[in-house]
Amino acid sequence: MAYVPPGSLLLSVSMNNGSGEYTPVAGSEVRVSQTLLHGFTLLARTNDSGEVEITVASGQYAVSVFDQMFSYETTVPVNPGRVTQMQVRVNRTSFLAFWVQAQDSSTTGQVETWNQVEVAVPMLSGNYFTREIVEFRNYSNFTFPTNVFLQPVKFQFSGGTLVPTGPEIPATVISQVRSTGDIWLVLGPLTPLSLSGANYLGVAAYEAGGNVTIPGA
User: Fold this and answer.
1) Which of 132, 149, 146 lies closest to 97 in space, CA to CA?
2) pLDDT per residue over 59-85, tens digit each?
3) Which domain holds residue 13?
4) Exposure of 48 by Cβ count < 10 A (0-12 exposed, 13-18 middle, 19+ buried)?
5) Which has the minimum average pLDDT: 94-108, 128-142, 184-198?
6) Above 60 in pLDDT, residue 217?
7) Shared-domain flag, residues 16 and 68
8) Which of the two ends of the chain, N or C, has the fewest CB atoms closer than 10 A to its terminal CB?
9) Are 74 and 212 in contact (CB under 8 A)?
10) Are residue 78 and residue 38 in the same domain, yes or no?
11) 71, 65 in Cβ contact below 8 A?
């Protein structure tokens, strides 16, 4: 039987936090499984440059990328002696809610995981925000994914900047209803959410997409 050299999968992960530039994402979990060999899975993580290279036998592979904030899955071919390049890009879209109603049944000053948060987000007249500034854009066709993140924010009116008062809290979208130019969301936090010191609540959505460069194609 003739020797068939292995190939490689070079994967990179980067994120756009709203500034227009993509930065590397380190520590994302990568799972590579040969589609014809069930249960055979290679595990790796992206380095500080957001990259990982895996050498495997030629064939068709299912590739999954997992992170706390996003996930992405696709199928890629790896050819003998060649490097298949896979690029995953994540977009972070964040909105300031103009109306918030949070349940605090435990009277602890925070929303527990068994409570809900109801918010209204403007989609036509702006209130999109990066980590520092507020901009105005039209997101009339935007739909929130199943999982989002909540972040209490303090807006400094003197300097016009946003200061997060706590970490991003994962939440499940229980329902979303579009009304004219707004979306009304019912959310279930997956960890306790404290609104202490905040005068706004941000809702952030992470969406991943990818492309594959196949050598010789």
Assistant:
1) 149
2) 899 999 999 889 999 999 999 999 999
3) 7-91+208-213
4) exposed
5) 128-142
6) no
7) yes
8) N
9) yes
10) yes
11) yes
In this structure, the strands spanning 134-135 and 117-122 are unpaired
> How far apart, in whole angstroms, are the C-alpha atoms of residue 160 and residue 162?
7
Residues 129, 134, 138, 140, CA torsion sign: positive
Domain count, the chain: 2
Q: Please report, for residues 4, 21, 96, 97, 188, the alpha-carbon distance to residue 154 in angstroms, rounded to integers and kept in the order given.
A: 59, 25, 11, 12, 22
Do residue 160 and residue 72 come from a single domain?
A: no
- Between residues 160 and 113, the one the model is more confident about: 113
C-alpha span between 44 and 42 (Å, rounded)? 7
Cα dihedral 65, 210, 96, 117 in deg (nearest 10): -40
The per-residue pLDDT for range 146-173, each reduced to its tens digit, is 999 998 888 776 666 777 788 899 999 9
**Farthest CA pair distance, the chain:** 74
The CA–CA distances, whole Å, from 96 to 12, 44, 119, 194 equal 30, 36, 10, 16
**Domain of residue 38, CATH code:** 2.60.40.10
How many residues are recorded in the chain? 217
Tell me what pLDDT residue 161 has.
72
Looking at residue 216, its pLDDT comes to 64
